[in-house]
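Notes from the 1:1 (GR / supervisor)

We went over the backlog. Supervisor wanted to see one worked example end to end before approving the batch request, so GR pasted a single chain during the call. The sequence is below; no edits were made to it. Supervisor asked that the structure be written out right there so they could see what the output format looks like.
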Amino acid sequence: MRTLIFYLAVLPLTLLMSLLVIPISWIGADAVHNWARLWGRIGLALTGIPLELEALELIPRDRPVVFMANHQSNADILALLAGIPVQFRWLAKAELFRIPAFGGAMRRAGYIPVERGDRRKALEGMKTAAARIAAGSSVAIFPEGTRTEDGRLREFKKGGFMVALQSGVPIVPVAIRGSYQIMPKYGRAVHGGRIRVTFFPPIETGGLSVRQLNELIATVRAPIAAHLGESA
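Structure output shown during the call:
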């Protein structure tokens, strides 16, 4: 039944709300995010997936941050939208911004394009992202780059950490549990279960240099891995 509801209700809802976001984007970036939060909450509710949030009080409310979460499932996007109580933007693949009408809406929403495969454009994108974050926009990143295939934590890529270093804002590690069992990467069925999202104390990046990049990655990865019962 849960799988049937997902394909007959959640997917059409996603398409409808994606189309409606185009005119909403002219209202403003915050309006788009509020619309996306509504989509996340409805999506979880329709599929009967409870969301538990832990340590919300650790999220700074007076400055931008970079949220870095492990990536177990497509349901992670719903969970972060529904669960993070502050405005934030996504770093998204640059190809999405080239979709007619929808790409323009993403730009107006404040989403930040990231080029892949072109090192020069990727570096320019990182500088743009860092400037946007430093100016006051929190962002969410999946540092693994893609969803896990076996439920285990993947290696963290350096790109998002470079952005955090350049912007000088704190990183908030986020552990997501339960979503892999609900909707694994190559599965077509939606299973029962609950998603737990846990936030950890912000990790400062101000004053750190590129030479400390690997140390920063290890520091961010450690609480997430420990919470998932894995070695860092």
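Supervisor's comment: The mean pLDDT is 91.
Batch request approved.
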